[in-house]
Amino acid sequence: MTPDLFENCDEGPSGREELAPGALVLRGFARPQAEGLIAEIAEISTRAPFRQMLTPGGQRMSAAMTNCGPLGWISDRHGYRYEPCDPLNGKPWPPMPASFLHLAADAAAAAGFPGFVPDACLINRYEPGTRMSLHQDRDEQDLAAPIVSVSLGLPAVFLFGGLNRSDRSDRLALMHGDVVVWGGPSRLRFHGILPMKEGTHALLGRQRINLTFRKAV
Ligand code: SIN
Ligand code: FE2
């Protein structure tokens, strides 16, 4: 145990961890900007509130979601897709803050994917007990661009699997400020979030918020 590694021990160490070819975790990458990101999320959610979407099968999703940027990911009885307007009010999704764009581009570049310009940011909100089952991100037209996923608030256990649903999944703890990037040969890997444990985070209370940046078209 080196003291510098555990300097911010309640928030986890910094550094990078390779998960697979084209996939890695940038530990603590978003931590210095977290308070600004959280303020932006609060503003976005006054205009496009968090809601639990319906799956095509008619179940309510466990995590609550909203979006910002030119396109937002939605799910309803008709399926999964990207829409330019929030179906709750018919208005365009709130614009993507410049700080979000810069963070996503910087993280992608640090992971070996320069020139990433996301057109969609899905914002997932988890409370203790909620989860996200194993899935692929495959509603995007441009599979050359990576996924950039930012964790804020309560810790979560991330499942990172293979290209087939039945492949074994790695489990890794994602802490406040961690960023996961997967692209290239890992772009269609299955992933998910185990049911969230009870807890309270200094900035977000009983919540985890995940920003998922994508290039949808
Ligand atoms: C997602 O796959 O959309 C979310 C993953 C996460 O919450 O870390
Ligand atoms: Fe996903």
From TrEMBL:
Q: How does the cofactor attach, per the note?
A: Binds 1 Fe(2+) ion per subunit.
Q: What is its EC number?
A: 1.14.11.33
Q: Is the keyword Cytoplasm in the record?
A: no
User: Can you give the residue ranges of the Fe2OG dioxygenase domain?
Assistant: 117-217
GO BP: DNA repair; oxidative RNA demethylation
Please give the cofactor(s) recorded in the UniProt entry for this protein: Fe(2+)
- Family of this protein: Belongs to the alkB family.
Physiological role: Dioxygenase that repairs alkylated DNA and RNA containing 3-methylcytosine or 1-methyladenine by oxidative demethylation. Has highest activity towards 3-methylcytosine. Has lower activity towards alkylated DNA containing ethenoadenine, and no detectable activity towards 1-methylguanine or 3-methylthymine. Accepts double-stranded and single-stranded substrates. Requires molecular oxygen, alpha-ketoglutarate and iron. Provides extensive resistance to alkylating agents such as MMS and DMS (SN2 agents), but not to MMNG and MNU (SN1 agents).
- The protein's name is Alpha-ketoglutarate-dependent dioxygenase AlkB
Tell me the organism: Aromatoleum tolulyticum
Give the organism's phylogenetic lineage.
Bacteria, Pseudomonadati, Pseudomonadota, Betaproteobacteria, Rhodocyclales
